[in-house]
């Protein structure tokens, strides 16, 4: 009696299990990448809100002239209330407004005249918030890039392992920090 057919069946069972394990691993990795994108987006949103709050605090601190305070407060408010389609533009406008405020020639002297330290605290908060926005955006765009690379793989396209998850998009803003 020949038992060669048993070896053949066991071989094909092993191949099916290995293929199923690989597909499962790929799907899990893709899911983890999507979770990473969502987490990075939440961190980016929090950093953007913190920067807008710091800009509003600077606008209300009486360190600036009324017209500059109004421009900065308007840009910060628009950044906080922008819808998803206009968020990148509003955040870029806030970045430009912050740089315009900090780059004013009398800004440094006005800050130096404040003996109570309030001006320095506001600027340190703003500087910290602006730096965190830059880092959060880089982390988010890196996560998006990795998720997009994983979704371009042939196996993911043939067997739609991404499910109903939308293709994540990059978040591009002018996030050069003000020269504080």
Write a concise synopsis of the structure shown.
With 180 residues, the protein is mostly helical.
How would you characterize this protein structure?
The chain is built from six helices and no strands. With 180 residues, the chain is an all-alpha fold. The chain has one domain (21-158): Up-down Bundle (de novo design (two linked rop proteins)). The radius of gyration is 26 Å and the shape is rod-shaped. The model has no long low-confidence stretch (mean pLDDT 87). Keywords: Membrane, Transmembrane, Transmembrane helix.
Q: Strand content of the residues, in percent?
A: under 5%
Largest sheet: none
User: What's the CATH architecture name?
Assistant: Up-down Bundle
The helical percent reads over 70%
CATH topology (level 3) name: de novo design (two linked rop proteins)
Specify the number of helices: 6
Overall 3D form: rod-shaped
Please tell me the overall pLDDT: 87
Order of helices and strands: HHHHHH
Overall radius of gyration: 26 Å
Organism: Actinomadura litoris
Protein name: LemA family protein
Transmembrane segments: 6-25
Keywords: Membrane, Transmembrane, Transmembrane helix
Keyphrases for this structure?
180 residues; mainly alpha; de novo design (two linked rop proteins); 75% helix
List the helices and strands and how they pair.
Layout: H1 4-60, H2 66-81, H3 87-102, H4 107-113, H5 118-151, H6 154-158
């Amino acid at each position: 009696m020949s038992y060669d057919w048993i070896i053949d069946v066991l071989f094909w069972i092993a191949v099916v299990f290995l293929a199923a394990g690989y597909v499962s691993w790929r799907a899990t990795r893709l899911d983890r990448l999507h979770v990473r994108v969502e987490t990075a987006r939440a961190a980016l949103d929090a950093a953007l809100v913190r920067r807008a709050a710091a800009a509003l605090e600077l606008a209300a601190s009486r360190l600036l002239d009324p017209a500059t305070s109004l421009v900065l407060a308007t840009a910060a408010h628009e950044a906080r209330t922008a819808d998803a389609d206009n968020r990148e533009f509003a955040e870029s406008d806030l970045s430009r407004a912050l740089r315009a405020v900090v780059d004013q020639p009398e800004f440094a002297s006005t800050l130096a005249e404040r003996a109570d330290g309030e001006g320095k605290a506001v600027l340190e908060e703003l500087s910290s918030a602006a730096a965190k926005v830059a880092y959060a955006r880089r982390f988010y765009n890196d996560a998006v890039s990795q998720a997009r690379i994983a979704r371009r793989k042939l196996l993911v396209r043939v067997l739609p392992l991404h499910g109903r998850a939308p293709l994540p998009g990059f978040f591009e803003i002018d996030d050069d920090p003000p020269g504080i």
